[in-house]
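Reopening this ticket.

The earlier resolution said the output was attached, but the attachment link was broken on my side. Pasting everything inline this time so it's all in one place.
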Amino acid sequence: MSLDNLFGAVREQNIIREISQKTFVGKVFLVGGAIRELLLDKSPKDYDFALTNQEDLRVIENTVGAHAFLLGRKPIQTHRIVSGDISLDLTFLSGTIEQDLARRDFTMNAIAYDIGENRVVDLLRGIEDIEARIIRCPSRQTLSDDPLRMLKAVRHFATLEGFTMDSGLVEAIQDLKHLIHKVAPERIKHEMDQIVTSGKAFEGLVMLQLTGLLFELFPDLHALKKLDEEKHFILETFGHTVGGFKYLPSLGNRYNLDERSIRNVAYALLFHDIGKAHTFSHDNAKQTVHFFYHEQFSRDLATIILEKLRFGSFDIKIIIKLIEYHMRIFLISNNESTYKAIRRLVYRVGDLTPALIVLTLCDMYGSSGGSENNSTLMVRKRCDDVLDTYNEWAKKPLPRLLTGHDLLAIGFKEGPFIGRVLNDIREKQIGGELTEREDAIDLAQNQLKAVK
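Inline output:
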């Protein structure tokens, strides 16, 4: 996009057209991501403004018809105005616009449009970098000032189509990666969420590994990488984990997962095998490698990581369940498996079934490199069977034959024994051994008599 076209694109924005008609005490600059989006022929929904006079905040509030609220802490505070689906962030300049742009995260975001004078300020040649699709930081100091910018660079790489990272930026992150520990966990999670759910999630993770941020953030993944190197695995535990992300975007779409479900599958995929570094064993007689109970170890380690990143309890529960069950479809992908086994799996995971299928296939293709063989074809067939069974279940969920209140009513006392009996009844119901409430009551009464 030429400079003339940029001027036109800026002035075509409704919010800019409205603001430019007002009279301001000081200067008002449009800065940051909105200009980058316009240069990429996209329509921004978020606009950043830099003001030289605090009185002008009221002018913009009146123009938009909404009041601003504060974000961040002093000395750097942002005033945010939200109106409909448009968000405006306003900050006040402590110096010149040129000084402000020099402190910004990336050159592609260090461009300003002077609304009053209809001119562009681009001292760092950010427009050239956008045209060349290069993510570049003004200086290493900008990364030190806010280490989250290292992760933001990878997020931009994963979400902006066709962009590459400047080699100097990669080297700077490699040198400064340890500073990421100064960043609040919530901010790290926000950036990671966007990386793992992007259309370039695989490339994003490879870049995280190249910069060193991946192992800095998740040392358990580094333990997997070391295991691969020390044991010379042909099928790499770490390698197939990252490789699985090649298939996540397409499989997520194929199985109609929403963004939240794709995100949860992504974290389950990232951490599903981290327990293998703690469960490796070698059978010398059979010359076989084992990772007994690695699901449980992975579950426990992942729980610690997710809690540290301030995941909500609901999402933690889902991710952990996916990790716990990530081997189940593989284990029933043989000719001996019965419909009862498939049915039992579906009733145990319920609405997580499509997500579990996506996780299974990402895990599988990460291991096979995307190629098909007899094993992958059998797993794919079993995934189809599982999905068909899930669709049947979704139309008519299996009702509960008894509740805890029912057991109390026939003489049970409160305690863990009630839970064990209910689980036993549910398992027999899933397996087709129990279908009627009366039969479930008989079973419960017999178990009660057995302990008296």
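Reporter confirms the inline version is readable. The first strand starts at residue 28 and ends at 31. The mean pLDDT is 92.
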